[in-house]
Design brief:
This protein is an alpha+beta fold. It folds into two domains: 89 residues, Alpha-Beta Plaits (2-Layer Sandwich); 45 residues, no CATH class. The protein is 33% helix and 25% strand. It is built from three helices and seven strands. A hairpin with a 3-residue loop joins strand 4 and strand 5. The termini are far apart.
């Protein structure tokens, strides 16, 4: 017998769980990163399905130890795991949204240091203007200034 919730099930011993994450919400990278962050205490197996990713989570240690005198059961880990999946998905999305700005900063820094073979377009003193995401796919626009 197992405890079943909306998007996860827990075995009757409370040592393993199956979490189902929609692929339309959670990327594989976010699921992997979140899983890795708990890998000291939990073991993970990811199963790829058509519409979702099944995350099979098991406790690494089911009995109390000196480090953890009262071993947590798997259902006590679930809220933290679900929050981590959201957290790491948000990080993936922010990273994608800010990639152009990070690349611009790195390119400008390397150009100033003189370590690039090809200089970035424009001059070092270029201004960076925000563009509407509706009008263009790029986040920033580099406009050369007249000397």
């Amino acid at each position: 017998m197992s405890l079943e919730r909306q998007n996860y099930t827990i075995d009757h011993d409370r040592t393993a769980a199956r979490i189902f994450l929609s692929k339309s919400v959670y990327s594989a990278g976010a699921v992997l990163r979140a899983s890795y962050s708990f890998s000291k205490d939990l073991a993970f197996q990811l199963v790829d399905h058509e519409d979702n990713t099944e995350v099979v989570v098991t406790l690494r240690s089911c009995s109390p130890t000196l480090e953890q005198p009262s071993a947590k059961k798997i259902d006590e880990w679930i809220p933290d795991l679900l929050n981590a999946f959201v957290d790491f998905q948000l990080r993936v999305e922010i990273q994608a949204e800010t990639a152009a700005v990070r690349e611009l900063i790195v390119a400008k820094a390397l150009a100033e240091a003189g370590v690039l073979e090809d200089a970035p377009p424009g001059v070092y003193e270029d201004s960076v203007e925000s563009r509407s995401a509706v009008q263009h796919e790029r986040l920033v626009n580099i406009t050369p200034t007249s000397s």
